[in-house]
Amino acid sequence: MMNKLTLKLLAALFALVIAFTCVHWGGEARAQAAAASPFQSLGSAVSWVNSPPLAPEALRGKVVLLDFWTYSCINCLRTLPYIRAWSDKYRELGFVVVGVHTPEFGFEHRPANVERAAAMLGINFPVAVDSQRSIWRAFGVQGWPSLYFVDATGRVRSRQVGEGGYAEAERVIQQLLREAGRQNVPTSLVAPQGTGTQAAPGTQPAASTETYVGAARSEGFRSAAGGLRAGQSHEYVAASALRLNQWTLAGLWNVGDEAAEAKRAGSRIVYRFQARDLHLVLGPGDDGRPVRFRVRLDGQAPGAAGGTDVDASGMGTIDSHRLYQLVRQPQSGGERVFEIEFLDPGAHAYAFTFG
Q1: What residue spans of 22-156 are helical by DSSP H?
Q2: Is the pTM of this model over 0.85?
Q3: What is the domain extent for residue 160?
Q4: What is the pLDDT of residue 38?
Q5: What per-residue confidence (pLDDT) applies to 26?
C-alpha cells in the first residue's frame, strides 16, 4: 500500500504532465501520428549538426528531449544552459537531447548559419536542421522554445512551451529514466549560470515586449511624417517624442516585410523601453561586409550598462546575422531611450527583444 508521500509525488507528476500537455497541437490526427512514431519526422531534416542523421532505430530505448529552437530567439538562448546541463548530466543513463532548429527569419534557413551559431553557442548535442518546418508541423509546435519529452517506449509524455519551469522539466527527465529501468538516477537539480545572451532575465518583469522592425509585424512605430513605407527606400524623419514601447527611424531606410535595411551611413533607430536588457536581431548587408554601429542610452555612452556586443563607449560591429545584446543594465529601472546609429550602410534590423 502506497504511503502519503508516494501518493503526493504521483499526484504532482500527474498534474505536471497535464500542465505540460495543455497546448494546442494544431490537429488531433497530427498529434496522434507524432505520438505513435515521434522520430519518423526527423528524417525530413535538411541537414544535421554535431551528428550524422539520426534514424528512429538510433533512439530506440532512449529517453529523448526534443528541443525546438531557433538561434535568434532570446527565449531559446536563455534555455540553452539548462539543455546543455541536462545533456551532460544524464547522457550516460541513456538520455539524448536532439535540438530541432526551426527558423523564424529567412537567414535562419541556411544550414551553414545554423552550424556556425551552434558552434558559437557551445552546443554539442545533435541538431536537426528543420529549414522546411516539416518536423515542426509534424509535432504541431506553436512557438519557441518548445520541449517535447519522449519516454523509452517512444511516447511523447510531456510538453513545455517557453522558458522557465526548469525544475519541473528535470523532474520529468528523472522520472522517465527511472521508468526505463535506469539505476542511480540523480535526484539533484542543475543550476547553470548563463552568460551574455544566455543569461537569465532580470528579476523585474520587462515592461517592453518583442517588437518587429519589418513591416509585416511592426507595432509602435512613430515618425514625424507618416508611417512605414514598405518596399521602397524612404528618407525618415525621427519622431520628436516617444512614449514607452514606441520607436522611430531616422535617415534613409528600405523597410521590407521581415527587416529594415539602412541604406546610408548615419541612419538610426530610436526606441523608448523599460527592461534590464535590450537585444536586437541584426545582420550585415547583402555583400556580407561588417557594419559598425554606435549605441547610446538617453543620449550618452552606455558605460557599465552596455551589453556583451558593445564596448563601454557603445561601439560594436555586425559581423553575422544573429541576436546582439546591446544593453545589459546592472538592474532593472525606469524608462530609457535607446538609440543605435549605423556608421556604415547595409545593416538589416529585424526585431527587438528584452529581458
Answers
A1: 28-36, 56-59, 74-90, 111-120, 134-139
A2: yes
A3: 4-193
A4: 84
A5: 33
The angle, 0 to 180 degrees and rounded to 10, between the axes of the packed helices 74-90 and 166-179 is 30
β-pair type (156-161, 233-236): unpaired
pLDDT tens digits for 270-327? Answer: 999 999 999 999 999 999 999 999 999 999 999 999 999 999 999 999 999 999 999 9
pLDDT at 301: 98
Tell me: do 188 and 280 sit in the same domain.
no
CB 342 within 8 A of CB 262: yes
Give the pairing type, strands 315-318 and 291-297. antiparallel
Which three cell numbers mark 234? Answer: 524612404
Find, among 266, 301, 329, 321, the residue nearest to 106 by Cα: 321
Q: How many domains does the chain have?
A: 2
Q: Are 288 and 317 in contact (CB under 8 A)?
A: no
244 domain-assigned? yes
Cα–Cα distance measured from residue 335 to residue 247, given in angstroms and rounded to the nearest whole number: 13
CATH number of residue 145's parent domain: 3.40.30.10
By the 8 A CB rule, do 315 and 167 touch? no
Main-chain phi, psi angles of 324, to 5 degrees: -110, 130
* Under-70 pLDDT residues of the chain: 1-37
**330 close to 190: Cβ distance less than 8 angstroms:** no
Q: Are residues 247 and 296 in the same domain?
A: yes
Selection from 10, 355, 348, 6 nearest residue 198 by Cα:
355
Give 190's Cβ-side CA count (13 Å radius). Answer: 21
